Amino acid sequence: MTITFRGAVLRERGLPRPYVESRPFEVVELELPAPGPGEVLVKVRAAGLCRSDLSVVTGARVWPLPMVVGHEAAGTVEAVGAGVDRVGPGDDVVLVYLPQCGTCRRCESGEPWLCKVGMAANLRGELLTGGTRLTHRGEPIHHHMGVAAFAEYALVAEPSAVPVPSGLSARDVAVFGCAVLCGAGTVLNTARVRPGESVAVVGLGAVGLAAVMGARVAGAGRIVAFDLLETKLEAASAVGATEVAVADDAAVEDLIRRTDGGVDHAVEASGTLEGFELASKLVRPGGTVTTLGLPGPGVSHALALAPLVASGLTIRGSYLGSCDVRRDLPRFVELYREGRFPADRLVTHHLGLDDLNTALDRLADGAALRQVVEF
Ligand SMILES: [Zn+2]
Ligand SMILES: [Zn+2]
Hints:
Blueprint: E1 2-10, H1 19-22, E2 25-33, E3 39-49, H2 51-58, E4 67-68, E5 73-80, E6 92-95, H3 105-108, H4 116-123, E7 135-136, E8 139-140, E9 142-143, E10 153-157, E11 161-163, H5 170-173, H6 179-190, E12 199-202, H7 206-218, E13 223-227, H8 230-238, E14 243-246, H9 249-258, E15 263-268, H10 273-282, E16 283-291, H11 305-311, E17 314-317, H12 325-337, E18 347-351, H13 356-364, E19 370-374
Parallel strand pairs: 4-9, 12-13, 12-15, 13-14, 15-16, 16-17, 18-19
Antiparallel strand pairs: 1-2, 1-4, 3-5, 3-10, 3-19, 5-6, 6-11, 7-8
Helix pairs in contact: 6-7, 6-12
The chain binds zinc ion (2 copies).
One zinc ion binds at residues 50, 52, 71-72, 178.
């Protein structure tokens, strides 16, 4: 059995803007075989466009091409291969961008967000089960992070598909696969913010806003949100920031003065060196800077070692929000059902598969939070 369906393929990186003219994404007919052992065929219902997708297009991150991009989605299981027992046909699932193998050293040590086997498969543009399955008229096409969501169907390894309760809005829960796991997970799992602690979030894309939501759920006292754009500050207020500020030196000084030395936790979610430096300045002695933004390769930060020691600062990276997706994704979806994770507020645009190039321009202009393709 082979199915044929529509999907957006990226063949060339670094095409010039505007993308609506250079058209990096081309919608074509794709084929997939029936799911093999350990694989799940998913009818994609909604898929979010993330800044990491843009970095595939620009070439800031080099992935094997041609590729079907997209790593954050929700859908319904159509069929499963042999040995798949956690999901079955008709189940609603959220697709996550790191298939956690469960058996490598990191997975067995309780750090599945660093799964070596899943990361290696992702870097090859292949599934955890080995190789690619997507084709366009017989030509092999790579899978972005084991998901390849900008298509009507996705064939994934079982760990990439996490079941969620049926009947939820796919357009809302799609963003849990990347934005919510990364943002909220960073606050709740990596930084482990405790009730009453103060948190600053720098960079208010969908991931930064999800970090604000996470801080709210953690019971943080002061939640200060920084960005350069007024619209993003408004969005942060709407999801639980207690204060917002345009990110500049004056705002940093003001916050340090008002908090008697800085906040307990700063979360860097802008993916820029400037954002990281700002976050580092905002933290009190003994506090924690947690960075989840992904600047381009080669971006580095010089660290003065004596002040690091004297300030007792902790600097941590956070990948996938330090999430064990089978534990955390259902937990976060439950918070959404309780109205405590207003994920719909992360989404500014709903679009069709053919609108992706326009959406890329909007994303590059900073004129959107999450844009969700609906099928
Ligand atoms: Zn993402
Ligand atoms: Zn693993």
